[in-house]
Amino acid sequence: VDASATAAANIAELHDFDGLYTLQLAARLREMYQSKTLCDIAITCGTKRFDFQKVVLSCGSGYFRNLLADDPTCSEHTLTFEPAIQPDTFEIVAESLYTGAITKIDYETSIPLLRAAYFLDVPHATAQCTELLLHELDQDKCLEIWKVARFCSND
């Protein structure tokens, strides 16, 4: 490692250039998603079609990473899971790939979101749903949460 590279790394760390760049990059990706700019894959879930950038899907979802590694030229894909992922649920999980968090979540939505995040292999969404369910856990909800946990643990 040469001295100029080390100095540049020290300056970047001191001034948090990397953190600023990461925030700006995330903001640009969200803008591109919202404006449908440079989308190169269409995902159909139920009767609804969604346009995305492959690189974002691949970075955040193991399911899409494997799909696109097997067929990098894929430009359309239909989700076929049993039980089916509802389009509104898929949209929330997919949007989290651009934001890093699920923004529309409560106890009622957390179970279908957890199933979708599990199927799509989206670790941050799975963790967020799990955390909410653990927080909401009480005597009345225990059996329902246990059923979901058993379902997601059967590989």
- Helical segment tally? 8
How many DSSP E strands?
3
Structural class of the helix and strand makeup?
Answer: mainly alpha
Radius of gyration equals 19 Å
Shape: globular
- C-alpha termini separation: 45 Å
Low-confidence stretches: none
Helix and strand sequence: HHEEHHEHHHH
Q: Strand-residue fraction?
A: 5-15%
Q: What is the average of the pLDDT values?
A: 86
State the helicity in percent bands.
55-70%
Q: How would you write the strand order of the largest sheet?
A: 2-1-3
Biggest pleated sheet: 3 strands, mixed
Describe this structure in words.
- The mean pLDDT is 86.
- The termini are far apart.
- The chain has helices spanning 3-15, 17-35, 54-60, 62-70, 87-99, 107-120, 123-136, 142-153; strands at residues 41-45, 48-52, 76-78.
- The longest helix has 19 residues, at 17-35.
- The chain has a three-stranded mixed β-sheet with strand order 2-1-3.
- 65% of the residues lie in helices and 8% in strands.
List the helices and strands and how they pair.
Layout: H1 3-15, H2 17-35, E1 41-45, E2 48-52, H3 54-60, H4 62-70, E3 76-78, H5 87-99, H6 107-120, H7 123-136, H8 142-153
Parallel strand pairs: 1-3
Antiparallel strand pairs: 1-2
Helix pairs in contact: 3-4, 5-6, 6-7
Provide the descriptors you would attach to this structure in a database record.
single chain, 155 residues, mainly alpha, 3-stranded mixed beta sheet, 8 helices, 65% helix, globular
